[in-house]
Specification:
The protein is an alpha/beta fold. The chain is built from 16 helices and 27 strands.
Amino acid sequence: MLIPNMLSKAAADDPQKEAFIEKHRRLTFREADEASTKLAQFLLSQGIRKGDRLGIFSAKCLEEIIVILAAMKMGALFVHINPHVKSEQLRHIVANCWMRALFVHESKISILNQADLKESSIELIVRLSQAQAQHIDRLENEHDYALEDILQCAYADFAGSLQTEAVQADDPAAILYTSGSTGKPKGIVVTHRIFSEATITSAQVLENRRTDRLISVTPFSFDGALSQLFTSLYVGGTLVLQESLFPHDIVETMLREQITGFHGVPSLWRMLLQKHSPLAKHHYPHLRYISMIGEPFPHDELMKLKALLTQTKFYMMYGMTEAFRSTCLLPEEFERKIPSVGKPLPGVDITVEDEDGRLCGPGETGEIVHRGAFVSPGYWNDPSKTNEMFRGGALHTGDLGKLDEDGYLYFVGRKDKMLKSQGFRFSPEEVEERLCQMPGVIEAAVIGRHDPDKGSSLKALVVTEPGLALTEKEVIRYCKSVLPYYMIPDTVHFREPLPKTANLKINRSELS
């Protein structure tokens, strides 16, 4: 059963049930089904066809769900853009996938205008926001529609066209952009089959049910957020959108909406555990489970969270967007096997291999290799990187790990120099490139360090022009203007020329 069929079934089985919630706004299964069908018909009337790329650049809102479902119904590929990107990253993504239409939230229009996409492939731009406001920047594009207006019209002439755009399981459904080792976001292709099979498997493992009320905190550019969205459709549950990341607001939503399932990266939970957070002041009798993926969780803090949520099941997961989900440590194995990230999910085979491709023995560290279900066809428009990472039908993750005698996987770290901060994975070159564009900076390097409060922190090493005195505050202020928040260095150190290797590349092993 593909995702559009899951929506149709939910709309037929329980049409008036609340499917999606955004603060005071509610959307039923029937409303979501009808709105996404109408939008798909509108897109067909505008010449958008199966295989075209539709961008979504938005804060968390009900409208972006309608766009995702419409794209999947007509066989277009949705490209959900991380809402924290700046104009340069936006420009790269639009050009890389040759995007034909872009759906934009009012809060993102100023960044869109800064990106200057007039000469891009975009032919159609649709505002997602429910209301128009005079103080909001005007969009600098003549093909400017409002989703609210689109959904008030009829497109019956294209109903047949929507039916003929038959979606096959192995058709691409989405391109999910994540940072690459070259410093540019790379697009991971995800098929309808992967979304469907991963949804069904995840729902079975997490024992999701119709009565579940899942909170959605991370953007839909994250595979985990999409998994929650599609799981709610599959089981007929309810998904509650959470835009604010302030601990008080998250806790308020958990209590008000009686949340039963919460998926988040460890850095989010660590934020909720900080002393200013109200998490520890309340009880959560409805919170049946939490699931975690994305980065290591310091043991002491994980145990603190476990002691706080005594009636809640903990699922510890491992996976990459390139393979959606790989392993899961079940609640009944938590006490015995933590910090393991569990065993392979059904249909998945996980091995740990040395540099020559030989299997490592129990306890030996090597590269984690994922075979079987959920493996992406590869990277969009990047055959070289695809051939490097996807060899012999397997994903060579670039992550280091080890298996114990019982076949449980333990994550060790990254093979390459990729950094991870607040759940986001990116290359140091992305930050370094922007730092070197700051007037007065001639060279820069960025390294990651363990931080007892945040889990990880970023340190920038900056070389300035002779005689120029920049301050740490000036550099950080500049970074805030050109980089997403999770790429902003926590500290800046000024130094002489950086250490180099024999081929004049930065010698990262000597950075500190």
